[in-house]
Amino acid sequence: MLLLEPLGLLHGAAARAAVASGLARPLAGGPSAFALVRFPDGRIRRVGDVPAEVLAGLTAPRPWAGFADTPVVMGILNVTPDSFSDGGLHFDPGRAVAAGLEMVAAGAAIVDVGGESTRPTSVVVPPEEECARIVPVVRALAAQGVAVSVDTRNAATMRATLEAGARIINDVSALAYDPESAAVVAAARCPVVLMHMRGTPQSMSGLAQYRDVAAEVAAELAERLQAAEQAGIAREAICLDPGLGFAKTAEQNCALLERQGLLLALGRPLLVGLSRKGFIGRFGGATRPSERMPGSLAAGLVACRQGAAVLRVHDVAATVQGLRLWRAALGWDTPAPGN
Asked: Is 288 one of the annotated active-site residues of the chain?
């Protein structure tokens, strides 16, 4: 697979005019566009000088899980006692369901329910305990028509939550942790998120060694994408996550965010989860995770400008408001009359 990097990004009216004149190509189907492309050997060429079929991985539309109008917001609902930002806050099932419904009311298109923390010092949770925590929450939210994603790396949890009404599987191990997980997803024919991570949450901090973080993450995600397809999972069902904060230093997170467009060459939509993470606090000067919403929103908009299709966030209402203003400023949406 030729990993081409889109450069010279354009948005709004400028993107439309450049595409119409042949000076740019739509990025992931639009509405943004790119005028230049960088090849793996470092050469930068104008898109008009590159055959359309060579750029197909960057230009093709990529609807996923029924969402064609992106970016969309995925709300984080951790039903855990030890998650880094909100551990214990939603450990009671009733409170978790209420919080999930509040996220939907605030504009979340998806609610991502998790029962095991994957922070660096986390403790491994057996699938039985994970299911006990989240299956009642998944079932209650699904019964209300919520599009529920389940953040798990265990095949048994995937089976139980899909039976309870979950629509999407979100696996931080990209289906590499549990040898049965790919077969579960293939049989269910459900959308899946494959996240980049090296090692496990307990070992990943020592594996953050890259010569070119963007190129290496892209190559390693390409391997997981291929493995998923070989397991019988339809390519159209797959979304990719660069795994910010997982086996990456703060500086590597920023470098990957800056060159995130390279991952679009894999031809799949991108989910970006950076909400309240440590590198946001480091560069934004916020020690406590709960104080990192402004930095998370700023970084999230950078990710969207680089082609992210899904933002996974804690602060749903603030993110939805920021995205609406951002889209309007780029000419994607028209504000309501009188506003």
From this structure: no
